[in-house]
Write a structure and sequence with these properties.
single chain, mainly alpha, two-stranded antiparallel ribbon, 6% strand
């Protein structure tokens, strides 16, 4: 097995290829099991207070990360490949995007609405064709960071345990990080930890999107539009991605029964079904660029 400086890029490539060939596990996915555990813990510990949320976060995340570090001491390469394979969501993201784009292109709007509703938290029941494409593109661009590049960043720093830490924290933010009465205090630690872990990876993702498309336009959108977005990390990623692809995202959306008017991101026409494929191609090229960068860094260190 590869050793030294080339072990990390080799493990990354192995995990990416496994994800490409096998996709995510159809049965007994560890992240699904973790989600069920997190839901059970939240039901028992949610006192709608910050300390309870912090304790719950530590209770469901830290033991798994500690166990990953312990197992890694015996077989670092194997453990790294397995953990990164389970943490990566590239193939799943591609499949979800295709499942939205295909019925949308074929005029099956109800099916496309249902499919996009599986990956976004907004109400999709009344979206038109452009609204479905917009919701799908926003999710694809943002999840390119959450499911792929943020995971790779923490893998590069801490190996498999780092990828696991990032994905578990990101999962808890998706489950608990809402500003509703139930989660506003309890879920705030999960949201803040995810923001901290995601700060630098999100900006590296935004830079990658910009380099592989309309670079100047993407950088301008990132600089001028991202500060107005509520999420400090999703804003740069989606603004840069939309600018790179030459489409406009944002605008009105319904969350938890209430309409939110969100600032525009990107520039150009509203996205259509074909633009979902362009977003996936952007993410695929970005993934190969990151892999190439990992190997170059590895060779330089070697």
């Amino acid at each position: 097995m590869p050793e030294g400086a080339l072990a990390m890029p080799a493990a990354t490539l192995a995990a990416v290829l496994l994800d490409r060939l096998l996709g995510e596990p159809r049965r007994f996915h560890p992240l699904v099991g973790f989600g069920r555990l997190a839901a059970a813990v939240e039901q028992r510990l949610n006192q709608r207070r910050l300390p309870a949320g912090l304790f719950a976060w530590a209770l469901v995340v830290l033991p798994f990360v500690a166990l990953a570090f312990y197992l890694r001491s015996f077989a670092p390469f194997v453990v790294d490949v397995v953990l990164l394979y389970f943490a990566l969501g590239a193939q799943s993201l591609y499949e979800h995007a295709e499942a939205i784009a295909q019925p949308l292109q074929e005029g099956r709007l109800d099916e496309a609405r249902q499919r996009v509703g599986w990956i976004v938290s907004r109400d999709t029941s009344a979206l038109d064709e452009s609204g479905v494409a917009k919701a799908g593109m926003e999710s694809v661009l943002e999840n390119g960071n959450d499911a792929i590049f943020g995971t790779l960043f923490w893998f590069a720093l801490l190996g498999g345990p780092g990828a696991l830490l990032f994905r578990l924290a990101n999962t808890l933010d998706a489950m608990w990080g809402y500003r509703t009465e139930r989660y506003n205090l309890f879920g705030r630690p999960a949201a803040r930890v995810d923001d901290a872990l995601n700060w630098l990876p999100a900006r590296l993702t935004a830079l990658t999107y910009a380099l592989l498309g309309h670079t100047r336009q993407a950088l301008t959108c990132w600089r001028t539009q991202a500060p107005g977005w509520e999420s400090p990390n999703a804003g740069p990623v989606m603004a840069s991605g939309a600018g790179s692809l030459g489409v406009q995202l944002g605008g009105a959306a319904i969350y938890h029964g209430e309409e939110e008017i969100r600032p525009p991101l990107g520039t150009g026409p509203a996205p259509a079904a074909a633009d979902l494929g362009r977003a996936i191609r952007l993410i695929r090229r970005s993934l190969w660029l990151w892999l190439a960068a990992f190997f170059v860094i590895g060779f330089l260190h070697a």
